[in-house]
Amino acid sequence: MSVYLGYYRVTPGFAEANAARARSGEASIDPKFRQMVIDLPGKLPANCRIIGSYAPMGTDLPAVMIAETNNTDDLFFISQYYNGYLQYQWVPARAVGTTAAERERYLASVAAPAGVR
Length: 117
Prior knowledge:
Layout: E1 2-10, H1 12-23, H2 31-43, E2 49-54, E3 63-69, H3 72-81, E4 86-92, H4 100-111
Antiparallel strand pairs: 1-3, 1-4, 2-3
């Protein structure tokens, strides 16, 4: 599996709609978008996994989604899923730290009862 970083920003139209909603006193998060975020994990293609998604507060820096997949079409799926809301730019992550297999072995060894390792 390969790891990809998806840098994303809110589209101008969605940003304007959010600002208008906030000015009118409505909830700050669009309910349709919120539901899309909740539903995405269940709609991902097989063998695609979102490791995390992080957005900096109070800055103009982009947010980032970290995805693991062997098929770059999965990244296109995520980009199209949020079309009209978020704009993505995907880049492969450089290998740092441990591999997925190494992490799984470590987690299994930590979870195993003492003396079973």
